[in-house]
Amino acid sequence: MELPVLPPVQPMLAKAAKKIPPGMLYEPKWDGFRCVVFRDGAEIELGSRSGKPLTRYFPEVVAALREQVPERCVLDGEIVIIRDGRLDFDALLERIHPADSRVRHLAEVTPASFVAFDLLALDDTRVMELPQIDRRQALAQALGDATAPVFLTPVSTDGEVAARWFEQFEGAGLDGVVAKPQDLPYLPGERVMVKVKHERTADCVVAGLRPHKSGPVVGSLLLGLYDAAGRLQHVGVSASFPMARRKALMEELEPLRMDSVEGHPWERWASEEAQAADRLPGGPSRWTGKKDLSWIPLRPERVLEVAYDHMQGDRFRHTAQFRRWRPDREPESCTYAQLEEPVSYDLAEVLGL
């Protein structure tokens, strides 16, 4: 490639905030794979946030970009999958597969889209030093004729519009709102934007733990919720504790430790058949590879309140944050019914289709 900006480029990042800041450029926060697109004529490379190429996994996106974006450009955006009017992150995870035949099949069955939200270079000109507002205008001109599956993200300078997006767009599977200073240059790898995400709480059963890699202290707590049939389903983990807290938690939970998984609601966690029927910890995944997913079973007798942003199907999309123990709650009362269900919103409305 002969471009003014060459791969790999680490995308510009955002830091979390609880409120939407005033006076910025606002965009929806997409829930997909961050992707920097490099196009030089027929040659296209899709770079991930880590710098590793995504190109082979999304041949249909490559073909669409070749048809619809300028012949020489570098774009920042997100690869997403749209199904039934909302984003489907689970289907996106399935696309990272080692077998080329499977990749080609999924490209037809669950085709992906690209949502552009920044411009790094166009033709022979590097534009990363330009203010965000100017890069946005140039991006809108460059993608003025783009059609599905290539999209230009909505943008606004109106804080009230951003607040409305924050409330409505979650129902279409979006992740919140991103706010960008209008005079901001593109700064690879730096957390200079602002992301505002939903935060909710849930009371969960602590049914196991994984030790920390550094020694016999808590690495993460395994969380469960009871489904309508009364089965305890694994919904995620709570982690990110200070080291002193990890040690204290291990001592605190020691009385609940079981000698084996026999009699535990997740005793069949190593069975592929059981993994297919229920959500259990330690399920096989190409993302975890050979990582040790064994865990220590605990009697499911304690309830923990955690904070989470949103659900991915029947589990927490991200690591849940420890808030407090709930000795006043019975484990059996920790069901999916307590979770807030966002009001449905058609993704076509977000993308102006």
TrEMBL record:
Its EC number is 6.5.1.1. GO terms for biological process: DNA recombination; DNA repair. It is an enzyme of class 6 (ligase). Keywords: Ligase. The keyword Ligase applies. It holds the Pfam family DNA_ligase_A_M. Residues 11-197 form the ATP-dependent DNA ligase family profile domain. The keyword Iron-sulfur does not apply. GO terms for molecular function: ATP binding; DNA ligase (ATP) activity. It catalyses: ATP + (deoxyribonucleotide)n-3'-hydroxyl + 5'-phospho-(deoxyribonucleotide)m = (deoxyribonucleotide)n+m + AMP + diphosphate. InterPro entries: Adenylation_LigC-like (IPR044119), ATP-dep_DNA_ligase (IPR050191), DNA_ligase_ATP-dep_C (IPR012309), DNA_ligase_ATP-dep_cent (IPR012310), DNA_ligase_ATP-dep_CS (IPR016059), NA-bd_OB-fold (IPR012340), OBF_LigC-like (IPR044117). SUPFAM superfamilies: DNA ligase/mRNA capping enzyme, catalytic domain, Nucleic acid-binding proteins. PROSITE patterns: DNA_LIGASE_A1. Residues 216-329 form the DNA ligase ATP-dependent C-terminal domain. Belongs to the ATP-dependent DNA ligase family. NCBIfam families: PRK08224.1. This is DNA ligase (ATP).
